[in-house]
Design a protein that fits this description.
The protein is mostly beta strands. 0% of the residues lie in helices and 72% in strands.
Amino acid sequence: MYAQGPISGFKPKVGEVAIALNYANDSYDTYFLDEGKEARELTANSYNLFIEAATGSKTSIIATLPYISVDDDNQGLQDASLWIKYNNLQDVKAKGLHNVFTAIGLSFPVGDYAIESDRAIGQRATVFNGRLAYQYQSNSGWFVNAVSGIDFQLSPESAVNWPLLLRSGYGGKYFYVEGWLEFVRALEVGTVDQSALAGSGSSWNRVGTTLYVPITKWLGLNAGGAWILSGDFIGKSTRYNLGVVFKIFS
């Protein structure tokens, strides 16, 4: 979730609640500017809460909350988000099914963290998010997924980002594995900020992978990695993450 955003192409069952707790470590020693790059070192540790609750046959509510720590002066609860996800289409075929989802969300600051330095964990921004997701999943467990949309930053000043996520993988009884590509482009920016991870005006290309192993019906473990390949106003970071997922069934 933390690497890719919280909107997947999978439809939870009615009455199901998924709760994921995740730890991630990001580090870089090179920072991409709009023209060239510079040496800059940073390590950030984050702890992330993700909840998705299926509230109906077509709808679910999603909430996220990260805690990020860079150093003693730059740490705390960062920006929470709330989403509504709707299954517009589920088309069942002989060899698999097609799913289309739309989602809208709002992210907003919940912590009084510092915003003045280039090691700040964020800018206390309020952002409206819109997403459209398509997924095909075969009966054998293989799937492909694409998610795009728009992000409108409302404060502290206006900015617009365009994200695109492409993902493919396999989900079976004993494990789930995926690889993904993420592209984010800043379309409209006021003042560019150069906060620790990504801020207003940041653009990037990133690749990643995720492995999930179910332990029981209600418990699973996940691990993953993500790498920034290029961008503007973002560190060339490497991320590793570990997590646990709980499922509650009504």
